[in-house]
Amino acid sequence: MPERLSPVETAKRAAARRAADLVEPDMALGIGTGSTAYWLIRHLGERIASEGLRITGVPTSSQTAELASKAGIALVDLEAAGRLDLTIDGADEFDSALNLVKGGGGALLREKIVAAASDRMIVIADKSKHVETLGAFPLPVEVTSFGWQSTKAAIEDLLPGHDLLGDQITLRLDGEAPFVTDGGNLILDLHLKRIGDPRRLARDLNLIPGVVESGLFIGLCDTVVIGHGDGRTEII
Ligand code: 5RP
Question: What does the record give as the active site (predicted)?
Answer without folding.
Answer: 111 (proton acceptor)
